[in-house]
């Protein structure tokens, strides 16, 4: 397992922190010393995270928010600015799958929801939080993408298109911040034992794929100030 970096005194916001990969990234970042700002809709999941963070001596701020509430994202940006004045780590993890179906048969509402959560919400977060990340001495952005951003997997249409668009936005942000102290990266976690994976691959033996905790342990070093020392390469 990759060693956790020292994230003491770093403010780290993780979207989709109520379960799965985001929950484990948030927990491990808190265990590495970060003050975690945990965003998701499910209050029970956020409270479970808070219990685990506190039990390991860490700190979290819980933010129940539907990321389709774009004005809510702007209000969160303003609140972070007021309270912390900067953001050191942003993990754009929240995502939805939609339905696995022929692309021409996808319901319009499902298509719009997938684009809203996986693309537009992330762009709204970029737009609102960019000044906070620039205010950090080493702002780190980690976008959780997928192999289907690059390869054609029939019946995964809206999800695949959304991840391709997301990665394009991330590459743009990385290029536009290359001369600053910020670093923007995307990562494909690979098949991971979560709610989403079970929805996508119901016949798969969960024991045959990585746990969210193991995947998170590889991703968390990407938040380090000293990226070149972490070997945080997938
Ligand atoms: P889960 O379904 O387990 O978790 C998804 C998270 O996103 C939940 O915390 C959920 O919280 C949050 N979320 C979804 N919709 C919203 C919304 N409208 N507002 C706020 N939060 C929302 O999925 P995973 O952990 O598997 O996926 C995490 C990321 O990893 C995703 O981006 C996914 O595409 C990517 N990924 C996963 C793979 C896998 O094998 N699991 C493989 C490749 C990529 P809540 O419902 O409480 O709002």
Overview features:
alpha/beta
Task: Explain what this protein looks like in three dimensions.
- With 234 residues, this protein is of the alpha/beta class.
- 44% of the residues lie in helices and 15% in strands.
- It has a six-stranded parallel sheet with strand order 3-2-1-4-5-6, sandwiched between helices.
- The model has no long low-confidence stretch (mean pLDDT 95).
- NADPH dihydro-nicotinamide-adenine-dinucleotide phosphate (NDP) is lined by residues 16, 18-22, 40-42, 45, 66-68, 93-96, 117, 144, 146, 188-189, 191-192, 194-197.
Can I get a quick summary?
This protein is α/β, with parallel strands linked by helices and 234 residues long. It is 44% helix and 15% strand.
- Secondary-structure-based class equals alpha/beta
List segments where confidence is low: pLDDT < 50 over at least 5 consecutive residues.
Answer: none
Shape: globular
Radius of gyration: 17 Å
Average pLDDT figure: 95
Biggest sheet details: 6 strands, parallel
How is this fold's topology laid out?
Blueprint: E1 11-15, H1 20-31, E2 35-40, H2 43-55, E3 59-64, H3 70-83, E4 89-92, H4 108-134, E5 140-144, H5 157-176, E6 183-187, E7 192-193, H6 195-200, E8 210-211, H7 212-219, H8 227-230
Parallel strand pairs: 1-2, 1-4, 2-3, 4-5, 5-6, 7-8
The structure holds NADPH dihydro-nicotinamide-adenine-dinucleotide phosphate.
């Amino acid at each position: 397992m990759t060693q956790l970096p020292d994230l003491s005194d770093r403010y780290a916001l993780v979207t989709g922190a109520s379960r799965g990969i985001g929950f484990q990234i948030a927990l491990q970042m808190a265990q590495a010393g970060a003050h975690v700002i945990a965003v998701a809709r499910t209050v029970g999941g956020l409270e479970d995270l808070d219990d685990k963070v506190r039990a390991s001596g860490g700190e979290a701020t819980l933010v129940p928010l539907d990321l389709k509430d774009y004005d809510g994202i702007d209000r969160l940006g303003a609140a972070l600015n007021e309270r912390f004045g900067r953001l050191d780590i942003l993990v754009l993890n929240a995502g939805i799958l939609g339905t696995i179906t022929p692309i021409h048969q996808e319901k319009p509402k499902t298509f719009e929801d997938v684009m809203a959560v996986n693309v537009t919400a992330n762009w709204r977060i970029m737009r609102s939080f960019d000044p906070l990340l620039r205010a950090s001495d080493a702002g780190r952005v980690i976008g959780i993408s997928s192999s289907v951003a690059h390869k054609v997997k029939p019946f995964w249409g809206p999800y695949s298109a959304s991840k391709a668009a997301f990665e394009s936005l991330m590459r743009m942000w990385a290029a536009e911040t290359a001369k600053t102290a910020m670093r923007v990266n995307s990562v494909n976690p690979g098949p991971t034992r979560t709610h989403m994976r079970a929805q996508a691959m119901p016949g798969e033996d969960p024991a045959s794929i990585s746990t969210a905790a193991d995947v998170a342990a590889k991703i968390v070093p990407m938040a380090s100030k000293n990226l070149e020392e972490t070997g945080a390469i997938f």
